[in-house]
Amino acid sequence: MRCLFAIALMTASTLAAPASAQWINDISEASFDVGAGISYGPGYFGDDETELGPWGTMRNLTLGTETGEEKQGFSLIPSFGYIGTRKDGDHKELHGLDNIDWTAEVGLRVNYVDGDATSYGAMRVGIGGHDGLVGEIGTKYRFIINDKLTLWTTAELQLGDDSFTDTYFGVTADESAASNFREYDPSGGIYAANIGLEARYSLTPKTSILGKITYGRLLNDAGDSPIVRDRNQPEINLGIARRLNFRF
């Protein structure tokens, strides 16, 4: 599975790199939203209860041209992710399972912009709680309602290698002996599918309210894990964001 992820990443980078190099002289600005707020969703992968927690975001990266329009076609950009801790002390049903530290994820993302539609694929490596390879492929569509309100609809598949699925969905022999869960060794691959609706409402030219509603469903070996109490994983995020601009 790691080999397949690496091949996919190298292929995407090879396809995007010539086009990205060709556009360096055309791109005059990069901008993105950085914000913080609250999240209401499952406490861990497969949880059947929801809880409030902090939400940090860096999203909606836009590459602009000298005319001020978003750059069309391929681009290769950084990709970041974060997964919080999982402790059996916070969830009594997980008693006997190993605790998992928080994880930072870093990698690359390939975008293809065609008008208001964007297709993308991302690949990241975990540092901390898991050291696997994860990513997603998906598409999003932008609706500019007016000069203050912009909406995005999103559909994506999430992927993880064996190391990732073992960490969050597996049960080792020792964990099985210490808990009520049977031993389980899941394979990597597509582990979830998400659809979402995101909104950005501008309070000022640089400051906005961000909101996002996501419906996720765990699939395949991840969804069959004995740890999973509910395959459905809805989440709501709300926060304040600042638009950062960098000109070249």
UniProtKB/TrEMBL annotation:
Residues 1-21 form the signal peptide. Its main location: membrane. It comes from the Bacteria. It is found in: Cell outer membrane. GO terms for cellular component: cell outer membrane. Belongs to the MipA/OmpV family. This is MipA/OmpV family protein. It comes from Paracoccus litorisediminis.
